[in-house]
Amino acid sequence: MQVLLPTLSASFAKADSAISGWQAQVADTTWFCTGSRFLFFGAGCSIGSCQEARLLWEEGVKSPATAMNTGSFRPGPQEMVAAGARFGMWIDPERMRAQDLAVARDLRKLGAQSC
């Protein structure tokens, strides 16, 4: 416990000094605009991160979001994508990379923007 308290205090101090920088980064981007559709895609073990991002988006940003497995989206509900939609995608460096990048290109052709 004696070692934990100084480490924890130092971590809080670092986070406190970094918050203004994070706020500037968020304020600088148009990705967080309201009224857009937010889509998060992942596959395999990344689907958990994708679902967590959706949950955090809905609770933190207070904007609806959708999370899907990229493989299910590929032949599926692409009509949900409209110009101005925003998407985040977890891409594995080895498995299905080319297919996932193709989905990202198709989403951009439909007018979506990646983060």
What do you see in this structure?
- With 115 residues, the protein is α/β, with parallel strands linked by helices.
- It has helices at 4-27, 47-61, 70-73, 97-109; strands spanning 38-42, 65-69, 86-89, 113-114.
- It has a four-stranded parallel β-sheet with strand order 2-1-3-4, sandwiched between helices.
- The model has no long low-confidence stretch (mean pLDDT 79).
Number of strand segments: 4
SSE ordering: HEHEHEHE
Shape: globular
Distance between the termini: 40 Å
Residue share in helix: 40-55%
Largest sheet: 4 strands, parallel
Radius of gyration: 17 Å
Total number of helices:
4
Q: Indicate the proportion of strand residues.
A: 5-15%
Structural class: alpha/beta
Layout of secondary structure:
Blueprint: H1 4-27, E1 38-42, H2 47-61, E2 65-69, H3 70-73, E3 86-89, H4 97-109, E4 113-114
Parallel strand pairs: 1-2, 1-3, 3-4
